[in-house]
Amino acid sequence: MAANPRQGDIRKLTGVDDEWRRRVGDWRIRFTIDDAARAVVVLRVLPRGAAYER
């Protein structure tokens, strides 16, 4: 993700601004991308079932 955060199995989440999820096996990584600062901010790393609960 450090080299290219938009590569791999990622999707933009609906209903939230500028939030993405990446699927890694049974885990989900929710994150935002700050292009200006060249940073990826990881919000959550959760198992698949709990990743989408609000």
- Any idea what the shape is? globular
Computed CA radius of gyration, to the nearest angstrom: 11 Å
Mean pLDDT: 88
Through-space gap between termini: 25 Å
Low-pLDDT parts are: none
Oligomeric description of these chains: single chain
What's the short version?
This protein has no helices and 4 strands.
How would you characterize the overall build of this protein?
This protein has 54 residues and is mainly beta. The protein is built from no helices and four strands. The chain has a four-stranded antiparallel beta sheet with strand order 1-2-3-4, with no helix packed on it. Strand 1 and strand 2 form a beta hairpin. It is globular, with a radius of gyration of 11 Å. The N and C termini lie far apart (25 Å). The mean pLDDT is 88.
Features:
4 strands; four-stranded antiparallel beta sheet; mainly beta; 54 residues
